[in-house]
Amino acid sequence: MSRITYFAVLPFTRNDDGNLIALDGAEAPSATAARARASWIARTHGGAVAFSRTGDPAIGEFDDAEILAKVGDVPADLAEFTGG
Predict the structure, then answer these.
(1) What range does the domain containing 32 cover?
(2) Domain of life here (predicted)?
C-alpha cells in the first residue's frame, strides 16, 4: 500500500441566484502553495478552500479531507466538495 497526500484548491463563486457554487479545482504542490493559491483565487472568485487528502490511489481509498485554509465566501459544510 502506497499512501500519498494530494493538495488542492477549490474556488467558489455565487451564481445569478446568489447560491455558492464550486468551480474547477486544481492541485497544488504543497500545503503552503495550496494556502497561497486559495488566498489569490479568493480575490477574484469570492472564496476558496485549500485542503489535502491522503490515501492510496491504487485502491481508491482516501482519508477524510483536511481543511488547510478557508478564504472568503465558502460553504459552511465542505464535506460534499472535499470528499470528507
Answers:
(1) 4-75
(2) Bacteria
